[in-house]
Structures are given as structure tokens and as C-alpha cells.
Design brief:
With about 290 residues, the chain is an alpha/beta fold. It has a single domain, classed as TIM Barrel (Alpha-Beta Barrel), CATH 3.20.20. It is about 40% helix and about 15% strand. The protein has 11 helices and 10 strands. Strands 1-2-5-6-7-8-9-10 form an 8-stranded mixed β-sheet, with helices on both faces. A two-stranded parallel sheet has the order 3-4. Helix 6 links the parallel strand 6 and strand 7. Helix 4 runs parallel beside helix 5. The longest helix has 14 residues. The protein starts with 16 loop residues before the first helix and ends in a 7-residue tail after the last helix. About 45% of the residues are buried. The structure holds iron/sulfur cluster. The site of iron/sulfur cluster has 10 residues, from loops.
């Protein structure tokens, strides 16, 4: 049975003409965005602010996280045209901050890292001055794979820890909390000029102490940016929401995150990994683009 959402989670999705134009263009280029796949409530705003999150490497994942709406199963072959299409879309949409993410491809020798690098290089070719953020899977902890992405030189490398270690077994059984921390920590060792970012969801049954420990673990590996949002079950078949956390609690975590040394902490019920991604980067580096 669908859980009743509190008022603060009820958003009227204002479909704008701009949003429709963007979605038509993405269809023509056979490109996926997480924004659409996840029916993100923020997409009208983000598209309007020239930010979008492209999903590369297909739409079928080799893993089976209990909170995620992405299709699970045998992925399709990698499309060699994709880097050019993503760069083309970014140029046509005049995007200033682009986020590239993917399903997890444990079926590929490098987990798709080489493909991420190609997309980054094509974007750099096509759109000068664009801020490139990649939201990567854990590449099974393969450092050579990670190095391919780091050497392509994105501005931000994001990898979500998603929840607290105690819940990994039920929420993301094929992932490993320590491995995710190590991956993010390695980025800074490989290239300290790259900003790192991570995020988690609340409402899966975690305790406050556990959340505080995760934030400390992320600060211990010098993670720069933090996002915290409310988990919403994509369907009745997914892990049920354990709690609709009050906005005041999110606000507290945002302040706590800044006090712990995160350069930016976006924490609110509707915050998602790429929400206000451009603002975060602009506030911290003075570069990038984010219209008021
Ligand atoms: S690895 Fe990512 S895309 Fe795959 S099921 Fe988990 S959250 Fe979804």
C-alpha cells in the first residue's frame, strides 16, 4: 500500500515549455537522463538552469539495489556513439554544468571507466568552460579503472555512499561501504584538484548516530561536497520508506555538515545528487554557472 507523503514532499510538477523542448531533443539523440528516468521533481528547475544529468552505458544495471528504480538484468552493448551524442546535446542545450552518471556495469572489464573518460573528453572538446561532474559507480574498487576517469580531468567526482553501513546488506547488497570510501579517498590521492562529492538518503531506518558517523567518515577522506535527501520508494516493490524525516532535521544536518568542514552541504527532503550542482560548484570555486 502506497505510504501517504507529508505535505513537505508534495510538489506540483510544473511542466515548462523549456522542459518539453529539452526532452524532445534528448529523444531525438536517443539519450537517457536520470532526471527523466527517476521522474525527478526538480527537473523543470534544473533544465531551466542549464543543468542536466545524463545516464550513459545503457539503462540496465548489473546490480540490484532495493531503493533504485533502474531496470536490472543483462545490459546492452556499449554504444560507441554515446560520447559524441552527449557532447552534442550539451552543446545544443548550452549546458554549463553537466552531470554524467551510469548504471553499474560489472559485466565490463573496467566497469565502463574508459567510456566515462571518452564522454568527458568529448564534452571538453565541444563545450569550452563547461563544468563536468561525474557520478560514478564503484568500479568494484578497481584503481586502474578509477585512474582512467581521474586522468580525463572532470571537475567533480561524485560517488554516493547512499546509506549507513549497517543497512548495506538490505539496501545495496552488491556494494561495500569501505570500498566506496576508499574510492572517493583515492581520487584526492590521484588528483587533489578534483572536488569530491557524496550523498546519502534518510528515511531507510538509520539512526542519527549512524548518519553522524558517515559524515565523519566522509570528512576523514576529505570529501568536499555533501548531499542529503529523503528516500522515496519508487514503487511498492521497493524497500519501504521507514520514516519521512522532517525538514528541520535536514536543516540541522546541513549545518552540522558545514561545521564538520564540508565546503558545501545541500540537505533537504527533495535534494538529489545533482540538485543545484552548479550552485555548489560556483559558490565554492567562483567558477561555473548558476542563474539566480
Ligand atoms: S548500482 Fe546504481 S543503478 Fe544499479 S541498482 Fe544500484 S543504485 Fe540502481
Amino acid at each position: 500500500m502506497r505510504q501517504r507523503k507529508p505535505d513537505w514532499l508534495k510538489v506540483k510538477l510544473t511542466g515548462t515549455e523549456e522542459m518539453a523542448r529539452v526532452e524532445r531533443m534528448l529523444r531525438n539523440l536517443s539519450l537517457h537522463t536520470v532526471c527523466e528516468e527517476a521522474k525527478c521533481p526538480n527537473r523543470a528547475e534544473c533544465f531551466g538552469k542549464k543543468t542536466a544529468t545524463f545516464m550513459i552505458l545503457g539503462s540496465t544495471c548489473t546490480r540490484n539495489c532495493a531503493f533504485c528504480a533502474v531496470t536490472k538484468g543483462k545490459p546492452s552493448p556499449v554504444n560507441p556513439e554515446e560520447p559524441f551524442r552527449v557532447a552534442d546535446a550539451a552543446r545544443r542545450l548550452d549546458l554549463r554544468h553537466v552531470v554524467i552518471t551510469s548504471v553499474t556495469r560489472d559485466d565490463l572489464p573496467d566497469g565502463g571507466a574508459g567510456h566515462f573518460a571518452k564522454v568527458i573528453n568529448e564534452l571538453r572538446e565541444c563545450s569550452g568552460g563547461i563544468v563536468i561532474e561525474v557520478l560514478i559507480p564503484d568500479f568494484c574498487g578497481d584503481e586502474k579503472a578509477l585512474l582512467k576517469v581521474v586522468q580525463a580531468g572532470p571537475d567533480i567526482i561524485n560517488h554516493n555512499v547512499e546509506t549507513v553501513p549497517r543497512l548495506y546488506q538490505v539496501i545495496r547488497p552488491q556494494a561495500n561501504y569501505q570500498r566506496s570510501l576508499q574510492l572517493l579517498g583515492k581520487v584526492k590521492e590521484m588528483d587533489s584538484a578534483i572536488h569530491t562529492k557524496s550523498g546519502l538518503m534518510l528515511g531507510l531506518g538509520e539512526s542519527r548516530e549512524e548518519v553522524g558517523n558517515v559524515l565523519q567518515d566522509l570528512r576523514d577522506i576529505d570529501c568536499d561536497f555533501l548531499t542529503i535527501g529523503q528516500y522515496l520508494a519508487p514503487s511498492d516493490k521497493h524497500y519501504p520508506v521507514q520514516e519521512f524525516v522532517h525538514p528541520a532535521v535536514f536543516e540541522e544536518w546541513g549545518k552540522t555538515g558545514l561545521n564538520m568542514g564540508f565546503k558545501y552541504a545541500a540537505s533537504a527532503p527533495l535534494v538529489r545528487s545533482s540538485y543545484h550542482a552548479g550552485l555548489m560548484y560556483r559558490e565554492i570555486t567562483g567558477q561555473g554557472y548558476f542563474p539566480s
